[in-house]
Amino acid sequence: MKENFDRALQLVLVHEGGFVNHPKDPGGATMKGVTLDTFRRHFGTGKTVNDLRNITQEQLARVYRTGYWDKCKCDQLPAGVDYAVFDVAVNSGPGRAAKFLQSAVGAAQDGAIGPGTLDKVGAQEPPSIINSICDQRLAFLRGLNTFSTFGVGWTRRVTGVRQEALDMARGASNTGAAAIDTGTEEAVPNLDFDIVRLGSEGAWVAKLQDALEIEADGIFGPKTEATLKAFQEANGLEPDGIAGRNTYRALGLID
Predict the structure, then answer these.
(1) What mean pLDDT is reported for the chain?
(2) Each residue of 109-129: pLDDT tens digit?
(3) What is the tens place of the pLDDT at every residue in 139-177?
(4) What global pTM score does this model have?
């Protein structure tokens, strides 16, 4: 629903952290989940790291709306379902979010939300859809080999999303405490990763290949690039063949 975007964005941003600048990535500056490359695509190639650090709420809203909310047709989804889908899209890519929704309503899982999916959404009760999406999300996360490292935080996030989404679906007046309360520690993006691309070698290339289920020889060649681009395309990410924070998150390699 259109009127839920601002609330959903507020909830999502709790998990996206503040300003960080990854020393191993020339374009690695990130503010509230928005990378410098993404910021420049939206607002001009001349934008600087300092401009990103001072990103406005209006600019944040534009990036998250066009990059995630609109891609998943959240304006056309029922209250609560919109937020549940949006949070998956931000954390794991719009393609995966669409497939979780399609599975929940019995639509073809092609990763693109169209009229057929929306018709099936309209025929089911929102709480049932929300619970199915959250259950699928937890099952996916528990199947990742990084769950032992990030599982507590992931589970807490999904629990908060479920509660807030159900409250939205029921029309409850809720301050969002279940989703917004993340404890005393600030949500900070995980920085323990290398940005890899064609020609890279090393442990993070091998981790990427393993997550993509191809031979993990630690050498980023044309096959790895093609497989990565296909994964990015299928999950609603920029298919640039470069593995950084957003791709690693979608693969479950970092929080």
Answers:
(1) 88
(2) 999 999 999 999 999 999 999
(3) 999 988 888 888 998 999 999 999 999 999 999 645 444
(4) 0.82
Residue 102's Cβ-count burial label (10 Å; 0-12, 13-18, 19+) is: buried
DSSP-assigned letter for residue 186:
P
Of 98, 25, 94, residue with least CA distance to 64: 94
Report percent pLDDT > 70 for the chain. 89
Q: 212 to each of 37, 50, 138, 207, 245, how far by Cα in Å?
A: 24, 35, 20, 9, 15
Instruction: Name the one residue in this structure whose structure tokens are 């989804």.
Output: 77
What radius of gyration do the chain's Cα atoms show? Answer: 18
Task: Give the separation between CA 17 and CA 13, rounded to whole angstroms.
Answer: 7
> Which CATH architecture describes the domain 2-180?
Up-down Bundle (1.20)
Give yes or no for a contact between 17 and 36, defined as CB atoms under 8 angstroms apart: no
Show me where the domains of the chain are located.
2-180, 203-251
Cα separation, 103 vs 136, whole angstroms: 9
Helices (H) and strands (E) in the chain, counts: 13, 3
Helix (H, G, I), strand (E, B) or coil at 21: strand
| C-alpha span between 132 and 26 (Å, rounded) | 40
The confidence score (pLDDT) of residue 179 equals 40
Of 74, 54, 100, the residue nearest 9 (C-alpha): 74
* Residue 51 main-chain phi, psi, to 5 deg: -60, -45
User: How far apart are the C-alpha atoms of 180 and 214, rounded to whole Å?
Assistant: 38
Residue 184 predicted with pLDDT over 50: no
